[in-house]
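Figure 3 (text version): structure tokens given as input.
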């Protein structure tokens, strides 16, 4: 994926292909074996693209998610939206914006992320109130700004957070969504309260656990309702049924950034070396067909028969 970051055609979202894949799998127009080949090919392309970004450009993406992955020419999954990218060695969590969705923010950054969002909201509310008031005490305004600056400085004590490790987490979270058909924010459907709060609490618990893992490989995950209560047990899902993909996602989403897989380690993972049909011509053709607005069932069945 030497050109993984090039501009790609619109309306060919990888997540749209994944949605179509789930529907066509249920309709039996795509076999389970072909579906897994497509998903794992998407994962391989994501890893190659992000590894290329880190290795060849020295950039951290900082907003990697399903919506920023596209199926482009030749049925290759590519990466888009580099508006938040910055040189990895210049990354400063006190100065940079992280992705807005909590499920793509690693545990080591979660407290900073939520505090920074709160700070931005407070400043916005203050600015609005200041504009609408005819009598603003200048000293109070200056004191309020000073307070914000002090808070930002204190939050900035966590500037040793690695931008590349944040990207690895986001990549793992995107893989999770691709494999399981839901993001980690949907992993406790019986819980009450905002999804963001549940994710936040789950990530903190994961980060504090000695052997915290996003996927609990000791139990199976039987679908969207199969992992109810897993957050309470320190995980977001049970096993996908494939030990290699479980291991890859857990490696990329390790709560300790120093033990998290690098992108180069991920691209050399056994999943991509030992799984048949990943990235072959028929798989690429099937990905292209699934990315279309109206996939042809007959074409899907024909291509599916060639895989697995």
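Below: residues designed for each position.
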């Amino acid at each position: 994926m030497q050109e993984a970051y090039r501009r790609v055609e619109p309306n060919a979202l990888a997540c749209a292909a994944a949605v179509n894949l789930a529907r066509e799998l249920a309709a039996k127009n795509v076999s389970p074996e072909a579906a897994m080949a497509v998903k794992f090919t998407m994962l391989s392309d994501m890893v190659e693209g992000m590894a290329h970004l880190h290795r060849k450009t020295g950039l951290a993406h900082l907003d990697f998610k399903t919506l920023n992955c596209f199926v482009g020419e030749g049925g290759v999954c590519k990466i888009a939206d580099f508006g938040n990218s910055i040189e990895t060695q210049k990354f400063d969590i006190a100065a940079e914006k992280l992705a807005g969705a909590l499920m793509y923010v690693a545990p080591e950054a979660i407290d900073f992320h939520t505090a920074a969002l709160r700070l931005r909201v407070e400043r916005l509310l203050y600015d609005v109130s200041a504009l609408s008031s005819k009598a603003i005490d200048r000293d109070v305004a200056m004191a309020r700004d000073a307070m914000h600056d002090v808070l930002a400085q204190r939050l900035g004590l966590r500037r040793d957070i690695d931008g590349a490790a944040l990207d690895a987490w986001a990549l793992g979270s995107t893989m999770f969504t691709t494999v399981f058909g839901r993001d980690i924010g949907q992993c406790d459907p019986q819980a009450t309260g905002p999804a963001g709060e549940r994710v936040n609490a789950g990530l903190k618990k994961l980060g504090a656990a000695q052997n915290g893992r996003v996927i609990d490989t000791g139990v199976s995950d039987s679908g969207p309702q199969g992992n109810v209560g897993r957050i309470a047990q320190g995980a977001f899902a049970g096993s996908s049924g494939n030990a290699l993909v479980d291991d890859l996602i857990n490696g990329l989403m390790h709560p300790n950034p120093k033990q998290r897989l690098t992108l180069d380690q991920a691209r050399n993972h056994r999943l991509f070396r030992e799984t048949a049909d990943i990235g072959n011509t028929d798989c690429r053709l099937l990905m292209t067909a699934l990315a279309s607005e109206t996939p042809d069932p007959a074409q899907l069945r024909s291509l599916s028969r060639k895989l697995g």
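The chain has a mean pLDDT of 76.
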